[in-house]
């Protein structure tokens, strides 16, 4: 009977682990393809974190995008790489290109700093174990990106902090219970 109880506790722990570890996808920024002026297009990256005076953006804390890189693939498969550095919260940065260039995609990549954050609804959490951000902007219609039309959101996976802590506490209690049962069984023998 005791072994059955221990096995059930461990089974419940392992079933709950993936469910508790699943996080929400939250928007932390966006990537836009725009026409600035005749002859000039640009790719603009916006960091939405920390700009929550309206309560619209989900991350209340100031979270920096470190080492922002854009890799734009032209119609002839040439890749233009733009190293944009770090992007502070609530700001944007851009890379300008000639408007006659045709692009099939743009890949954004960066890392997040810090790993913990607060949401505008008062909850707290951590970003998923991998702090890397990645997003690929593809044409919404046709073969090439269209200035002023194509944009997309940059998302990160978050894990709610209370869930992580409760999962850890449940696991520790389960292990303590199993150890206590083994100790009692050993004393009887």
Task: Explain how this protein is built.
This protein has 189 residues and is an alpha+beta fold. It has a single domain, classed as Immunoglobulin-like. Helix content is 25%, strand content 44%. The chain has 2 helices and 10 strands; from the N terminus they run αββββββββββα. It has helices spanning 2-21, 161-188, and strands at residues 24-37, 40-47, 64-74, 79-87, 92-98, 103-113, 116-118, 124-127, 132-137, 151-160. The strands form 2 sheets. The chain has a 6-stranded antiparallel beta sheet. Helix 1 runs antiparallel to helix 2 (161-188). The longest helix has 28 residues, at 161-188. It starts with a helix and ends with a helix. 20% of the residues are buried.
Quick one: biggest sheet? Answer: 6 strands, antiparallel
The proportion of residues forming helix, as a percent range, comes to 25-40%
Strand content: 35-45%
Overall number of domains? 1
The counted number of beta strands is 10
Placed side by side, the strands forming the largest sheet appear as 5-2-1-10-8-7
Shape: elongated
């Amino acid at each position: 009977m005791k072994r059955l109880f221990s096995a059930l506790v461990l089974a419940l722990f392992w079933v709950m682990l993936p469910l508790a570890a699943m996080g929400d996808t939250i928007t932390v920024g966006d990537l836009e393809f725009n026409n600035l002026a005749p002859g000039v297009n640009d790719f603009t990256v916006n960091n939405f974190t920390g700009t929550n005076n309206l309560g619209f953006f989900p991350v209340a804390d100031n979270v920096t995008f470190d080492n922002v890189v854009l890799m734009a693939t032209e119609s002839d498969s040439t890749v233009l790489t733009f190293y944009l550095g770090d992007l502070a919260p609530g700001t944007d940065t851009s890379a300008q290109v000639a408007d006659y260039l045709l692009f099939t995609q743009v890949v954004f990549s960066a890392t997040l700093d810090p790993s913990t954050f607060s949401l505008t609804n008062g909850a707290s959490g951590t970003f998923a174990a991998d702090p890397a951000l990645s997003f690929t902007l593809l044409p919404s219609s046709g073969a090439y990106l269209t200035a002023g039309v194509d944009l997309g959101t940059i998302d990160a996976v978050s894990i709610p902090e209370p869930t992580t802590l409760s999962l850890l506490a449940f696991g520790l209690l389960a292990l303590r219970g199993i150890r206590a049962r083994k100790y009692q069984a050993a004393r009887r023998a």
